[in-house]
Every structure is written in structure tokens, then in C-alpha cells.
């Protein structure tokens, strides 16, 4: 019997057929950072690890990891080298990979003491932030907003590109908020939300939904596959579509703040 995959391969050009052959049929091969807490961890504790287990179960394949620090050369040394077939979390539109359909939309957040005088702040233009020291990842989109609102002079920068096996800027930033070293932290929600839920009960995560000026602070997150892997992309798209409720539940349990596709409201899952 002629299978659908065979029909698709027969209609593809030589390049498409060749790249499709690189995808493992016996394992769900994931490219991941071994120390990207709370997303991917070599001990399997990250929520992207749990997402990988979910997708692998639907494919009836075991998960197999290729570990490499999420820094310069990550895609070149993992996905592009054919050592693995998917990156579990990748921003939509990045040219280094072929994106699946997005499975979540999230945003940068403000993290402050939940009982402090900044707990009611919902936007970076709030006068209450003037003169306050905020942590921010150097070079990340929120830094532009801090500069626009006159907050960058008092801000404390934390490194963006590091080997997280040896440095943990996100963990350091939240520890500094708890210790009163900084008044708050502006962070990527899928990092801040789970870490606060797990380790920082006295902090509050506030999604930044009211920053109208560029650059945008919300992003649609996809799985990334090799460029040209259209058959594999469509297979993952189908899995995402059919199991979105389970993905939503997994992310919500982890503490990831989910927002609408346009980044203008918190998305309430399961209601």
C-alpha cells in the first residue's frame, strides 16, 4: 500500500526528499540546552522536557537529547548538523529554523515583591518606577522601553549570552529582588513565571501588556525544525493542533504566563 508519506515524498523536489530523510523514525530527537532552567534541564526537570515527553508519547517514540549550550553556534552544532530534529522552544519568524505553528504566546513581565509598593504597577511608564532600580537582561527588548521611560540609568544589567552551566542570570536577578538589591526585574515570562512559582513565593509576576511602542514584548513560540523539513513541520503542526489543550495545561502548571495571540490580554486556560 502506498503511504501518505510516500506520496508526499514523490511530489517533493530532490532537496526536500533528502532533508526529510534526516529525521529519525525511531526516536524524538531533541536539541536542548542542558542547564536552561526552568525550560530544559539535563535531569529532565524543565517544562520543555515535559513537552518533549508529551509529543514523543503521541509519536510513540522515546525522547533522545543532543545537549549544547543555548548560545552562539547552538543551531549550527545541533539541528543543522543533523544530530537532532527539533528545538522545543523557538520564537516565530527566526530565519535559522523552519518554525512550526506556535503552541504558546507569552510576554515579558515585571517581577516585584507581592506586598511591596510596586505590586500595582502594570506598565513601564508608571511614575512609581521613577528612581527605582530594575534588573533587565542586557540587549533584550525591554531595555529599549526602560530607556524610553527614563529608567535605564538606575537599571542593573544582567548578561544575555552565557553558558548556563556556569552562570544563571535569571536566577541571580530573582535572588536580587528577594534580597532587596534591586526593586524589581523585567524578564521573559516563560523564564520568570516558573521560577517565581517554584522558588520565590513572596514575588509577583506582572505581564507587561500595555507597552504599545516598539519593540514588542510578546512573542509567539514554536518548535524549530531544519529548513526544508516541510513534511516533519506538518506532522508537528498536526500534533500541536490536536493536543493544544494538553500543552496549555502543561505550561500553566509550570507557571508560564500565557497571553492572547496579539499580546493584549492574559489568556485564561481551561475556563
UniProtKB/TrEMBL annotation:
Q: Which Pfam families match?
A: SBP_bac_3
Q: Where is the Solute-binding protein family 3/N-terminal domain?
A: 27-254
KW Cell membrane (keyword) present:
no
Keyword vocabulary terms for this entry: Signal
Q: Which InterPro entries match?
A: Quinoprotein_dehydrogenase, Solute-binding_3/MltF_N
Superkingdom is Bacteria
PANTHER family, alphabetized: ARGININE-BINDING EXTRACELLULAR PROTEIN ARTP, MEMBRANE-BOUND LYTIC MUREIN TRANSGLYCOSYLASE F
Name of the protein: Solute-binding protein family 3/N-terminal domain-containing protein
The species this protein belongs to is: Salipiger mucosus DSM 16094
